[in-house]
Design goal:
This protein is α/β, with parallel strands linked by helices. The protein is built from 13 helices and seven strands. Strand 5, helix 10 and strand 6 form a beta-alpha-beta unit. The chain is elongated.
């Protein structure tokens, strides 16, 4: 019986030739380190379970607290501070954080060009079609508000921009993460279309902004070059799939007539592949601006109807 020897040496042959030591001091040290790591992991897991047990036992708000944290003392570890399990915007510390966050986001919006009047109106607002759709926007593609003057298009745009900045903060109660919103705010551009197309440098910056608000589309006049520049901005934002908010007094048919079907359909296409963009919002024709009597036109018409 003939047995063919394998072309390559098997493991026992290699070990016998001392090419791959199976038992030496190096392997023993490796096993020692592995056992030490396993023991450390067991200790860490035990301490974490003890900490979680203490946190679960907190049923009453421990106010005043230190920046929303509580001091826990696990039996197997050292005393340390952890986030309070009852922390929310309803607790004393959380309510103060919410006020600070609101002011912080407002300052970011003001720095990006949002008019002061819209920021002031955040405190007292009226439910409008623009506001309702701004709350539904998923920050993808275009959000287009159209309607007559004074129906709340620009305020809806400002509201949506604030929601976008707030979405940049993963933990609203952790002030250390607010810098993410600051970075997004620094790359947010709010400007009228007239201002954008008259400044060539503004066109390039608006095309790459993380969030762009194009206010008053259609107010640039009946100039082919200006409308071509506005269409170029829309196309660039469309190609880069960047969130863009547009306000205009033009209907969708008038947008097609002024800028062409290519630009118009880019404004309403859902470029994210989900219901997050491509929203065309009809804000109506009822003005919300105060008249001479200090009442909103819609409210005054209701009062007159009752009389």
């Amino acid at each position: 019986v003939f047995v063919r020897r394998p072309m390559y040496p098997i493991l026992s042959d290699i070990a016998s030739e001392q090419l791959l030591p199976l038992h030496d001091s190096t392997s023993e040290q490796f096993h020692d380190r592995s056992r030490a790591q396993k023991q450390s992991m067991k200790w860490i897991l035990r301490v974490e379970r003890e900490i979680q047990t203490e946190l679960d036992n907190i049923q009453i708000c421990p106010a005043p607290c230190e920046e929303g944290t509580v001091l826990v003392s696990p039996p197997s570890g050292t005393r340390q501070r952890r986030r309070c399990p009852l922390l929310s915007f309803g607790c004393p510390y959380g309510s103060g954080v919410e006020e600070k966050l609101d002011g912080y986001l407002n300052r970011l919006l003001l720095g990006s060009g949002v008019p002061q009047r819209h920021i002031k109106n955040f405190a007292a607002y009226i439910e409008t079609p623009a506001l309702l759709c701004a709350n539904k926007w998923g920050f993808g593609g275009f959000l287009v508000f159209f309607g007559k003057s004074g129906v709340g298009k620009s305020f809806g745009a400002a509201w949506a921009a604030k929601r976008y900045l707030r979405s940049m903060i993963p933990d609203l109660l952790d002030t250390k993460t607010w810098n993410r919103a600051a970075n997004a705010g620094e790359n947010t551009v709010w400007a009228t279309v007239n201002r954008l197309i008259r400044d060539k440098s503004a066109i390039s910056s608006s095309c790459a902004a993380r969030l762009l608000v194009m206010d008053d589309l259609g107010r640039e006049g009946d100039f082919p070059t200006r409308r071509a520049d506005a269409s170029d901005i829309v196309s660039a934002r469309y190609d880069m799939k960047l969130p863009t908010i547009v306000t205009t007094e033009l209907t969708f048919g008038e947008i097609i007539a002024a800028y062409g079907e290519n630009t118009a359909f880019k404004l309403v296409e859902d470029i994210q592949g989900e219901t997050s963009g491509g929203m065309l919002v009809d804000c109506g024709d009822v003005s919300l601006r105060p008249d001479n009597d200090g009442l909103y036109c819609e409210e005054k018409s209701v009062q007159r109807g009752r009389k």
